[in-house]
Amino acid sequence: MASPQDGTAKQPRHAEPPKGSAAVRHRLVTWLPSVCCLVAAALIGLTVILPVWALDLYAPQYPEGPITLYAYAYKLEEQYEDVRGEIFELKILNNLLGGRFPEQPVELSILPFVLGMVALLSVSAACIPGRRALLLKAALLLALLTMLAGSAGLQWRLYTFGHHRDPGAALREIPAFTVPLVGASSFANWKTVSRFEIGAYMFGLATGLLGLAFWFERRSRRVP
Amino acid sequence: MVWQRSLTWLVGGVIFGLALPFLMAQVQQEQSPAEEIYVGPFELDTYYMFSSGGPSGGIFVIGLPSGRLFMDLPVFEPRAAYSYAGVGSKEREVLEKTGGLWGDTHHPRLSHTQWDADGRWLYIQDKASTRVAKIDLRTFRTALIKNVPNGQSAHGLSVVDDAQGNTKYVCVNIEYEAPVPPKAGLPGGYSDKPVPPIGAKVPDDWLSAVTCLDAESLEPVFTVPSDYGNFDIQDSTPDGQWVLSTIYNIERGSNIDEMIKADEDAVQFLHIPTAEKALKEGTFTVVNGVKTLDPQAIPGLVTLQPAARSPHGIHCQHLTDQPGVNTYCAAAGKLAPVVNIYDVRGPQPKLVARPEVCLGPLHVQYDGRGNAYVSCFIDSQIAVFNVERAVQFPTDPKQYLIDKIDVHYNVGHLSTVKNYSVPTGDWLVSQNKLTKGLPGFLPTGPMEPEVQELIDIRGISAQGKGKMRLVYQFPTPPEPHESDFIEAKKLAPLVQSKYKKPHDPDETPVTESKVVRSAPTKVHVYLTTVRSRYGLDEVRVKQGDEVTLTLTNIERVRDITHGFALQEYGIHAALDPGDTRTFRFIADKPGVYWFYCTWFCSALHMEMRGRLIVEPRT
Q1: Cβ separation of B556 and A170 shorter than 8 Å?
Q2: pLDDT tens digits for B163-216?
Q3: Is B386 helix (H, G, I), strand (E, B) or coil?
Q4: Burial level of B351, CB count in 10 A (0-12/13-18/19+)?
Q5: Dihedral through CA B436, CA B440, CA B446, CA B448, nearest 10?
Q6: Tens digits of per-residue pLDDT, A130-154?
Q7: A103 interface with B at CB cutoff 8 Å
Q8: Rounded to a whole number, what is the distance in Å from the CA of A68 to chain B's nearest CA?
Q9: Which residues contact B583 (CB under 8 A, 6 or more apart)?
């Protein structure tokens, strides 16, 4: 092994660990993208098991608090008082309203798969340094697309629910309405507040980390 | 001069301005009665009063000070609206088996934890069919009904606390003398010996008794029968050591002429620790399955003290600042114008004073600061006296009598708030027997509504001074006897809003609506209810089928009750969210019978129906 003081021997690039601040920078540049990718993959894992969106429904005859609809990547849940589980009360209420909503929305079968793809791409980017830039580009693109398509799809569902209602519904005179993706609205006797939930924030953070990894990866190319 | 006049106005203004707060304070002190009892929208009452209903067979749940009636809680009689003991129900079977579809309730008592009402159980007796019920205050439904064996007429009732102040026994007075053991097969349990004619004494083996039941199971723990006379009202001492019963008809007569001859009747003091010791030592006989203690054979088990005359109410004083501590108990003289006061602090209770109070004293209640309130039936008044002073100067009414107030009319029971646990000393309710066209009350035919009168007793001081004040009158269905109380803030959070499990632990909730035939003439129908549909729109059975119908309300939202009324079969259910009920009937009439929801459940309530088709058997 050649001594570091021996300036005569021609060393291959990076075979010699740099010292001081250069060493720190070097370590950051090599490890950070991988760490970012792995953390992002873990966060995407959390996205799948945590709710991504919620809708609080308030009405005078529910003085004890709102009925909350939770959207997960793969299922819908309802919370009323201390009971959380399958959609129950909202189905009963929809008997009056006749809002159109499929029993098993197709996006809830696709979304976990797509999220899995993003996670897989992130893990691959962490493990295959040679293809990292390409893999990261793909992961980022898919993640941003998922965000965009997911939000647009949900807003479309909310629109069709309020607009294409069963013409034979008990309360068919209620004017068409759209519950917004985020924010407050009202229809019939209901006041609603919709918001992104922790899962969405996790996914946002994961996407940010992928972006950061991509940025580090680009920088590492420039580091001599 | 202008400046002088200005100065006068200025000085006058300043003085008036300074005096204004004092003037306002003076005005505010004179609060109107309306303000004191007004409970505004969204406000809780201060107390809930559980007032027994006499022959209404249940309990009235009334808020104080507002006097608002919250619930006419059925116990010993069916009530369709609450789906209690309806046709084909298990509850009805219990009622029929234990005596009948009505009751005569007199003495409600709340269970205690550390000497205070805990809002868990409410006990009530039925004088008519000699039974006791336990009501679960989480759901306000009757949890248990049991006959008290070996006797006729369960009248006085009290709860007995252990050394930690937690309710251990529910004791009842078995009032009417009957042969013990009862002779099976003879009407009314009469013995095979010839019954002596009216005018002769009742036979020696016809006994009255004090029977103590386990507070959880209502199974008899022990009974102490005797031939002393008729046990009337009952109370226990705050420390749970003594159970006191007034005794009238010490003469053992069979009709009124013989029953009121003696000048002295008695109060029986039953010593609970001695009874428990006898049970442990085995000095009892088992009669008809009940451990029976003989007061003649067990020294110290009972102590009799004289009481004038045909006494009615017996009530012990609880002190607000010393829960569980004994002081005095008092028996109202009824036919004698006196109150018999017993000192229960020592090892042996003894009569210490007999102050004259009024005509027809029926019951005594306390304010927790040393004063006793007496209902005077004949005088139609409530009298208040200071207990210590009455003991010190029993012959000088000026020393002990504090105040008297007119009530309308003929007060029976009176109830001070939390008299039986930790008295609060603020309100007294006069539960009057007669209304007699009282102005302000709609005379609902010859049977008039009963009146309860709210009396402010905050003005009666611990020093034995002050005035009572009548502030409110409110009607109650017939016929309020006495009451027990709990703070609204304490009880309200303990009450369930939904059934997590069915009220009846033997019921299994229906998850799938279906019709299952288990035998050629046996059908089990399982139905769920949810807004606004029954689990099946149509149910088919065959004529003559023995139908078991189990209903589950699968609603999760509080207060969404669904009904089930079946035409021409008399079946009615009302199910609260999460509850399951089973009904049995014979489908003997062929035809089509609609069933429908009786509790307005949603905008689609009228559409909530289905039909039972009873196919004729060929």
Answers
A1: no
A2: 999 999 999 999 999 887 776 655 556 667 778 888 889 988 889 999 999 999
A3: strand
A4: middle
A5: -80
A6: 888 899 999 999 999 999 999 999 9
A7: no
A8: 13
A9: B86, B87, B88, B89, B548, B549, B551, B571, B573
